[in-house]
Amino acid sequence: MILVTGATGCVGRAVVERLISAGHAVKLLWHWNHEHPVPRRVTIIGGDVRQPETLKAAFTEEGDIDTVIHLASIRRESDTDAFDEVNIQGTQNVVQACRDHKVGRLITMSCLGAETRSPYPLHRSIGRAEEIARGSGLNFTVIKSAVVYGEGDWLTSWITGMARSLPLVMPTPHSGQTKLQPIWVGDVAACIVRSLSTRSTFRQVVPIGGPASMRLDEIMATTLSATGRRRRLVRLPTSMTHQLAGFVARFRHALSEPEIEALAYNRTTEIGAVHRMFGFVPAKMGAKLDFLRPDALKPELNVSLRGWPTA
Ligand SMILES: NC(=O)c1ccc[n+]([C@@H]2O[C@H](COP(=O)([O-])OP(=O)(O)OC[C@H]3O[C@@H](n4cnc5c(N)ncnc54)[C@H](OP(=O)(O)O)[C@@H]3O)[C@@H](O)[C@H]2O)c1
Asked: Which domains does the chain have, with CATH numbers?
């Protein structure tokens, strides 16, 4: 049985769907009391990666685990969530639980640009988590991905959130020149599920990205076009981006000032990486944005699993 943490997130949902269609038995570590659409045909155990005792229950109750896909993480700190505790200690706890319960296989994710010496706290914490997986002694795979898009992602949510708030123009940070390599969440999920049986991914960090390097202004234009909204992109040079970061950070699904600053850096990898490692060509961005169309079907009403203690 495969245990998935972070199963209700953007990547987690796509991974669980693909695991179920491939016939795998799946158990989810479900973050206490949070509301999400409940997938069918899975075992759900409430828990928190910061709490080793809840991981113990997830590893021991209702079916033996042989593989862990660890995707639980936060992108932003709050009064209750810190990078050190969730991204770093959470990964350490998952690794320890794998050791304690003799689970040998761990698949997890990192992002391009994540390094322990990154100037950005989020990327530093993910870099540290990556280091923990690499040093775990387990048969690990770290999928080190370019920016991911799909239902619930931060990238298109940010762009569409700004477009909803601003009627005519869109401020485009860093003159729109930053190069990213967006990859569709369904393709990321395919890479993760194929890693289960792709030996060349064992004990490896595997960089992946979409089929093209795209400038931020191209990504914004592609996203806006999928929503049917027309906006004139106003390219703000990096110096003005810094000055206006507070303004740009005010909108729905806004990025914080450090997140906008982190967008100044190109984050791309080899274009053919997915094909070379996993044998398929990832989708072009314009082809997988149906979820942004005004008439797109939204997931069913959220369901809250009651009866769990409050975190
Ligand atoms: N999205 C990208 O562009 C991107 C790019 C490269 C790599 N990655 C990596 O991919 C992985 C998944 O990212 P994502 O975009 O799917 O993130 P996401 O949408 O924010 O989902 C994060 C998941 O982690 C869960 N979670 C948060 N804190 C937890 C805790 N203390 N205990 C247990 N579960 C907790 C969340 O549950 P609740 O919502 O209920 O709290 C949610 O299911 C991360 O490792 C991320 O670094 C993402």
From this structure: 2-145 (3.40.50.720)
